[in-house]
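Let us begin with a simple case.
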Amino acid sequence: MIKNILIIDDEEQILEVVEAYLMKDEYNVFKASNGKDALDIFNKEDIHFIVLDLMLPDLSGEEVCKKIRSKSNVPILMLTAKVSEGDRIKGLDIGADDYMVKPFSVKELLARIRAIKRRLDKDIIKKDIIRFNNDDLVIDKSKMEVIKKGEVLNLTPTEFNILKILSKNKNKVFSREELVINILGFDYDGYDRTIDTHIKNLRRKIEDDYNKYIKTVYGVGYRFIGG
């Protein structure tokens, strides 16, 4: 359910106009004019939706999006004056759910928020809990929790996302590059062997002598083999 919306924009007029329309639709509105304040609000409040301008005075919108995506799947709609296809693709690749170019219609913005809300409501109806090997391993996607033998595991967001994508595509082989793009983002420029470290830590948490879940496909990558 979308109730609390965070608007991040350095233009006061946009903040005020969008806030007025959202409050008219009975949303609770939080506002920030820079990236640092936005992250502070996000970490303190239960935010359900974010409207994020890419051009901010301190952190860029891309940086804010990446930081939020590292810990949350909250829907993000980006606002920007950038109009090139490359800019739009980059925004979507780093985790935005939708994209609007300035100047924009506030009524269209509200329509897009409602469309994303409908999509989320449908997703919630779908099965969110996956069980393996007689509940040896349980993945609760809606709560972002993984349970091993009845105990909730302390997974990092990256570990959870790796497990989610592998388990959702059982027996499909993912290369390291594919996992990097899907988990860390298209523009991640680090060493792709970083995925190996995350997989190693994930295996240590979810596997034991009797239940193996992630198989290494040598020279290629990894696949999920849970029963």
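The second case is a distinct protein. As before, the sequence precedes its structure tokens.
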Amino acid sequence: MNKEKISLSQLEQYLSKAAWILKGPVDASDFKVYIFPLLFFKRISDVYDEEFEQAFEESDGDEEYASLSEFHRFEVPEGCHWQDVRETTTNVGLAIEKALRSIEQSNQDVLYGIFGDTQWSNKNKLSDKLLIDLIEHFSQYTLGNEDVDPDMLGQAYEYLIKHFADLTNKKAGEFYTPRSVVHLLVLILDPETGESIYDPACGTGGMLLECVDHLKKNKADYRTLWLYGQEKNLSSSSIARMNMFLHDIEEFEIVRGDTLRSPAFFEADGLQTFDCVIANPPFSLKDWGAEHWANDPYGRNIAGVPPKGNGDMAWVQHMVKSMNETGRMTVVLPHGALFRKGAEGKIRKALLEQDLLEAVIGLGPNIFYGTQLAACVMVFRRDKDAERKGKVLFIDGSDQIRVGRAQNFLETEHVRQIFDWFNAYADVENFVKKAFLEDIKENDFNLNIPLYVEKMIEDNLPSVEEAMADLKTAWKESLKAEKKFKTILKRFVK
């Protein structure tokens, strides 16, 4: 095995090659359910070996002592190590299944169900040769702490998540939110040391980890954060948990489940509340559980019952209910959530009357995977600053993008500009407007950004006199050109 320190580019190539090995028998949308568990299995085995060697040396060669559970973050049962699987040449899928299930069972408190429900023994899809090639590919590097920094391994993991989003072009909110959008949401939230952070639609955990990175960049103690997430999709929730471990995060709780129908986190008197709430929930979710909302047992019906076929405002109310007394939240929604009438209009009215909405930010079109729709960010705060009470800040960031061929991009400078506008809390012609609740009431609680941020249209048309002068000049020039053309033509026509 290669014992050199591994660079980020090497890790990225290493993970991309694993996807290429699977290409053909396995659909690109399923790559993640094979590659992520194997990567995590390899990491667990290599770190176990490191821990074993250290304890072995400390005990002057006592293998029984070095195998004690207190020296290992995760237990690896006998016969279930990566090397055991690597030495298997027939029924490799069965060997992988046995190893993964045994590791889960030996670490039930933290790893129960983390490897998902992938059918490794399906030889129609995963032949022994393919799995041997994949195992051998992963075996070229050692992924222990001495060989790869957890932060770097985590970055490579994030790269792989984005890579799969590129390959499968998943719908916005389903699998991957562009990192720049997540960065904007976290900048606005500004999580601090010791705070709790909750994502009710956490996907693969990217938003929670961006909060960790935010503290790291501010040179704050990120290990004091308490991270909570819920995710309906089995493979995404498993990947989120693996993602946390690979980033060396310990204080987290990721639960698989349907947040709107069956929220996972509670305190003695109801839903657990948090300092920061952040999410990019599935846009306009149809079958979201409207039948239970009128008499919601968790008390989330704080502003009304959303339409049966659209769960956007159910997510908003759940998140608002999940804020503690000083809580704040950022949520990504489709623009329709700002102006749709009927039940959603009534919910907007109720939330505005509670003076919880702090800002509405319009993002540019086509920056999410699989949809050209423009999205918006809504910012809520339980206890707004005095200068912001009774007002909502509207930001039109629709032109803050770099236009690409198939997709547009929210770049670092665009994130910084939007965040600066949010922080400054001042009107900027064509881009930012503070609106009083009375103004919003006059618009029937419609939050459509163009109602508040008016674009100044510059009239650069010439006057009639200037246009006539230009026309005369052009006419004279055309007569000269025609005369010259006829002169040249006579040379050739006899």
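The chain has a mean pLDDT of 90. The radius of gyration is 29 Å.
Keep these points in mind for the review questions at the end of the chapter.
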